[in-house]
Predict the structure.
Amino acid sequence: MPLHVYTCGDCHQRSELLIHPSETSPVSCPACGSTRMQREFATFAVGNSSPSSKAAEGACPMPGGCPGGVCPMMN
């Protein structure tokens, strides 16, 4: 389910809510119950934290460094 960011028009509480795409009922504020919610644009980051991507950046992915000083991911 997508995560949406809303701000309440009554109490100005900002909330992150999981809303199912098929949901048709109005969104209610978790703080005051108002349905005067305005959806905001949410920001997100996409990244790759796999060991091979770190090796490609030149950083050893092994905690404490690679054994013998030679990184198997760099070869």
Observations:
- The helical segments are 51-56.
- Residues 54 and 61 are 6 Å apart (CA to CA).
